[in-house]
Design goal:
A hairpin with a 7-residue loop joins strand 3 (64-68) and strand 4 (76-84). The chain starts with a helix and ends with a strand. Helix content is 13%, strand content 46%. It is globular, with a radius of gyration of 22 Å. Strands 1, 2, 3, 4, 5, 6, 7, 8, 9, 10 and 11 form an eleven-stranded antiparallel β-sheet that branches. The longest helix is centred in the first third of the chain and has 20 residues, at 2-21. It has helices at residues 2-21, 35-38, and strands spanning 41-46, 49-53, 64-68, 76-84, 94-100, 107-111, 116-121, 127-130, 137-145, 150-161, 164-177. The chain is mainly beta. It is built from two helices and eleven strands, in the order ααβββββββββββ.
Length: 180
Amino acid sequence: MKIQHISFLAALLSVAFLAGGCQSASNDTAPIPTAMTAQKGVSARINNQAWQSATEQSATDKAYYAVRGGSNPNELTIIGFGAFSGMSSAAKTDRITLFLTSASGIGTYPLSAGSQAIYTATTGALVNYATDATRTGTVTITNYDLAKGVVSGTFSFSATTGSAIITVTDGQFTNVPFGK
């Protein structure tokens, strides 16, 4: 009888321990709206705040797009116009620009002073935060489909404007069309 009582107590404590471990951790930051959810667009966390490109697209007003080449066919620029979560569509004028000098297809590309990332804040005074020799990052292209005219991938970087520094994490661009 004593062994059954101890076995019951051990089983009860195990269940209580496991149930307590199943609770989700509290996260006071808003979940990031992802471009993957929208199936198109650009999203990221800027200093841990969710940022999302606008979703409205028209023939003359693009919320996100990519441009290839010019004189160098491997140049690729990806641009998303957006704002932090909770802001109206009209406020989505901040911009993330990813400029790659040698994006020949799927792969990971470094960001620094040559291939560069720029975050342009338009609330208040216009401020450009850019990667440089010490504030760097990466862009990983996971889909480069010239037939469908879209590019997808991920990015992260730190950038500066004078003494101010921002950190951009969890960046995604999904099915961003070529051309403006």
